[in-house]
Amino acid sequence: MALATIVGYGLVIALAFLLTSPSARRSDASSRRRAGALTAFLWCAFGVLAVAQALALSRGHWIAVGAALTVMVLLYSRMLALRVAVCAGAVAVVMVGGLGIASGTLVERARSITETTSTPDQSVIDRYSLWSTAAGIWQDHPASGVGVKNFAAYRDTYAPLQLSAASDTADSVNGFVRQPLLSPHNEYLLILSEQGLLGFAGFAVLVATLLWGLLRPPGGSLKRARRDPLWLVAAGFMTALLVDFLYGDLGGPTSVLTSVMIGLTAVIALGPPWADGAAGPGGAGAARPGGPTAGAAPRDGRRASGGADDGR
């Protein structure tokens, strides 16, 4: 899960800089070489990260990252999104129909996404059971919940009989380990069950503020923001996070990374670099109607730096 989370964020960042990378069609040769090298590096990074994301075998992160990348391409250019969709469909037809790649772990894992409602596996059954458990806790404690990190203490009281006692994992590093199910694997239900409507209201205000800041960038138009790689990173990250919260929650070492990403998103959404830049629309250095242009001498004869001409 840590691998899937880190790689997913890396894919969002790589795609943002790929979409906004400088064009290789430059007049001088050195600029073309630098632009071409940067684009090649970004494509290599994106390809390696995409393979790692696939091999993580996390269905939830596949959906969340896929939604984030789709939203980013749509925000950047609808025509580009259409071309990407057509190319992806053609590649899928060739790989599955032409080359016969229709079996294996990856394909079976992807196919199981559509079977989560008809024939769910035990992990999906446990997740549904945890969701109903969290909903039951919230119904009995609607205002303030049962307290932070108290879901596990109330779990067995509300859990249905089909819920497993723990999740079994096995790998070459840790061997066989039974992981206790300490959360409902849904951030929204986790907040409602542990913090109630009061805590969920605070979380909703945070998310709404970030989304509002991204949709209405201060000091710049949305059209211009779509060409900014940092803005695209923030938009993709928020999409991935909100989708992933439908079947996952914060926990483990990657929660620190997610918190850092939320902080960076807040900086971009509420105070992006172009808001106070001299070249930004409406920025401090932009020419204002009826005001002096950038670089014009002040009327009182003092220097443009704002300090008195005292000979220092």
Topology of helices and strands:
Blueprint: H1 2-19, H2 29-55, H3 59-76, H4 78-98, H5 105-111, H6 122-140, H7 151-158, E1 166-171, E2 175-180, H8 187-215, H9 222-225, H10 229-244, H11 254-270, H12 273-276
Antiparallel strand pairs: 1-2
Fold and architecture overview:
This protein is mostly helical and 312 residues long. The model is unreliable at 277-312 (pLDDT under 50). 24% of the residues are buried. 60% of the residues lie in helices and 4% in strands. It has helices at 2-19, 29-55, 59-76, 78-98, 105-111, 122-140, 151-158, 187-215, 222-225, 229-244, 254-270, 273-276; strands spanning 166-171, 175-180. It contains twelve helices and two strands.
Q: Give the helix proportion (percent range).
A: 55-70%
Gross morphology:
globular
Number of strands: 2
Strand content: under 5%
Indicate the structural class: mainly alpha
Average pLDDT metric: 78
Question: How are the strands of the largest sheet arranged?
Answer: 1-2
The poorly predicted ranges are 277-312
- Distance between termini? 60 Å
Largest sheet: 2 strands, antiparallel
Determine the number of helices (DSSP H or I, runs of at least 4 residues): 12
Sketch the topology as an H/E string, one letter per element: HHHHHHHEEHHHHH
The radius of gyration over CA amounts to 25 Å
